[in-house]
Specification:
The complex is a heterodimer. In chain A, strand 4 and strand 5 form a beta hairpin. Chain A is of the alpha/beta class. Chain A is built from four helices and eight strands, in the order ααβββββαβαββ. The termini of chain A are far apart. Chain A has a domain of 102 residues: Nucleotidyltransferase, domain 5, CATH 3.30.420. Chain B is an alpha/beta fold. In chain B, a hairpin with a 2-residue loop joins strand 3 and strand 4. In chain B, helix 2 crosses helix 3 and helix 3 crosses helix 5. Classes of the chains: A alpha/beta, B alpha/beta.
């Protein structure tokens, strides 16, 4: 009987963690590949609205981003009204023309007609601000715009 | 001297290092949203020649400061907007045999509504207090109306939906005749042109 009793006393064998680094590396590579480093540090709340009739924006280098929304909690001193953010700082509507000119100057000339302006606007912003931005964009002839949205049904989230 | 075997490197801390990197990338990752509703703004023109458009060819959508919707002078819920817009665009009011008759329309052919999809214009007006969320929802529904009609038309004509055709055209790996596909897309776009005007 001794043959069979042997196992009873033994503890559970330790689980081998030798493959742990492999698993972690696999995850690591996934995130390294999927990561897009944020170009701008957002100083505003940027909770995008939902839409489902969306088009994809290809060619990331041909997109100019204009952010707008209420200043986030860390920037409370700028008030609670929705503001525009260009690059890394708050801006007013008049700065948009200069911003577009600067973006255009940094691109090759033949690519300028393909530049798109992506408006990343918080869903709680009101249309007055967006109307002003659009008017400003028309003045500098930057007519291709894209309202960046999250993908989802319009009716689910109201 | 006898050659000694190289000592084995302890790989025990490998997992720690990998974890450290993993956590760094986890924290910095933002899966960027890069899709949205594309629009073209009207250029600023000096000439203010008023083009006379028949009232029946205009589908007015008004959004007030309280996010309420007024469509063709009637209060409407957002969920009914798509259907109303499709009905308007697809009406094809010009009777058969006359110029501008729309032979692919499947609407009610009500003479009091739009003449044909080419003439039909949707006019969207919002106030400064309208919320962006509501505006996007409404734009989305109107785009959906156009896409619905285009999809239907493309399905009839080419046995493939318009969105699929566009996806194929944008797909670099797609094999097939690109110029032909572009022609098809343009044909559908011409049959149901997107005439959406925004009033400031």
């Amino acid at each position: 009987m001794g043959k069979f009793n042997k196992k009873k006393g033994g503890d559970l064998p330790a689980i081998s963690t030798a493959s742990l680094p492999d698993i972690v590396f696999m995850l690591l590579f996934f995130f390294m590949v999927a990561t897009v480093m944020r170009q701008n540090t957002l100083m505003i709340k940027n909770n995008l609205p939902y839409a489902d009739q969306v088009e994809k924006l290809d060619k990331k280098d041909l997109v100019m981003y204009i952010y707008a929304g209420k200043p986030s909690d860390a920037y409370k001193q700028y008030g609670t009204e929705a503001r525009i953010q260009l690059n890394d700082k708050f801006a007013s509507v008049e700065d948009i023309a200069a911003f577009i000119a600067q973006e255009r100057a940094s691109k090759r000339e033949e690519l300028i007609p393909f530049l798109t302006t992506a408006l990343k606007v918080d869903q709680d912003a009101n249309m007055g601000l967006i109307g002003d931005i659009k008017q400003e964009l028309r003045k500098v002839n930057a007519l291709k715009i894209n309202y960046t949205t999250k993908k989802g049904n319009v009716f689910d989230r109201r | 001297m006898a050659k000694r075997a190289a000592p084995e490197v302890n790989a025990g801390s490998m997992a720690d290092i990998a974890f450290l990197l993993l956590i760094f990338f986890l924290v910095t990752t933002t899966i960027e949203t890069d899709s949205g509703i594309s629009r073209k703004l009207p250029p600023i023109e000096d000439n203010n020649d008023d083009v006379i458009i028949k009232q029946k060819n205009i589908f007015t959508v008004l959004l007030n400061g309280k996010d309420q919707l007024l469509v063709e002078d009637e209060i409407m819920e957002l969920k009914d907007l798509r259907k109303a817009a499709v009905e308007f665009l697809d009406n094809g009011g010009i009777p058969k045999g006359q110029e501008g008759y729309c032979d692919y329309c499947k609407g009610k052919r009500d003479p009091a509504s739009s003449d044909n999809p080419d003439k039909a214009i949707i006019s969207l007006k919002n106030e400064r207090e309208t919320s962006y969320k509501m505006y996007i929802s409404v734009s989305n529904e109107l785009m959906a109306a156009y896409n619905e009609l285009r999809n239907r038309r493309a399905q009839e004509e080419f046995g493939q939906s318009f969105t699929e055709m566009q996806a194929d055209y944008d797909n670099v790996n797609w094999v097939g005749n690109r110029t032909k596909l572009k022609e098809k897309i343009d044909k559908i776009k011409l049959e149901y042109p997107q005439k959406l005007s925004e009033v400031q």
